[in-house]
Amino acid sequence: GAAIQLEHLTKAYPGSPVPAVDDVSMEIKAGETVVFVGPSGCGKSTTLKMINRLIEPTSGRIRIGDEDVTAIDPVGLRRKVGYAIQASGLFPHMSVAENIALVPKMTGWSRARTRERVAEMLDLVGLDPGEFHDRYPRQLSGGQQQRVGVARALAADPPVLLMDEPFGAVDPITRDHLQDELIRLQHELHKTIVFVTHDFDEAIKLGDRIAVLRERSHIAQFDTPEAILTN
Ligand code: ADP
Ligand code: ADP
């Protein structure tokens, strides 16, 4: 069934003459990677933020599994939905380990289990736990910060992962490498991923299906990369 369902989702920011997201409906299946691709300002981030309730829709609704997001308690939602954004998303005053441990701690995991999980997550994203556990974000390269961001988003093993331009701030070679790693991770973990980018090549590379968005997140096309490339 659908892992995520958007129904007539609309967001009008106060004081803005046009809605940022206007009447968007779509179904995202369990285990697929859907990429939202579209120009800057078309409402991609706004849509992601509504899915994890960082902002409330003006109208419409969102279901995750068979639950309305408004019916899920905040900690439950953090456990269901991981969120990775650009490097700035790491808390600078917290070590790598503390950043990764955030949601597990919030959901009441024991110290021992959390500690083990942090090391496991660092391994998963290709960072040596011994070397990186106690570092601070400023002591990492851009690519390493992105890896920690992904490790943090996955730490509590959420079925859904939202990624907002997660590789937007790294150089092209590192980005290419991180994209390959995400594909490898996805083969291993089978998350339901919604990935936002303005980079069409990135969308084609990563998406099982791609939603090509126009202004106000109007869906111009929603199809496989193969179908999008031939249309
Ligand atoms: P994208 O992620 O596609 O770049 P956004 O969702 O960030 O687009 O923005 C969509 C539109 O909503 C833009 O016109 C942007 O200026 C506007 N917007 C975003 N956040 C806010 C906000 N907090 N208040 C008012 N307008 C906003
Ligand atoms: P990249 O070439 O990937 O951009 P950098 O040149 O930023 O990486 O860093 C190279 C290595 O030095 C990385 O392993 C990084 O973790 C480490 N490093 C960078 N800055 C610091 C710092 N302030 N303290 C400790 N190690 C650092």
Automatic annotation (TrEMBL):
One of its GO terms (molecular function) is ATP binding. The keyword Manganese does not apply. Residues 4-231 form the ABC transporter domain. The keyword DNA repair does not apply. Keywords: ATP-binding, Nucleotide-binding, Repeat, Transport. Belongs to the ABC transporter superfamily. This is Betaine/proline/choline family ABC transporter ATP-binding protein. The lineage of its organism: Bacteria, Bacillati, Actinomycetota, Actinomycetes, Kitasatosporales. The chain holds residues 23 to 253 of 435 of the full protein.
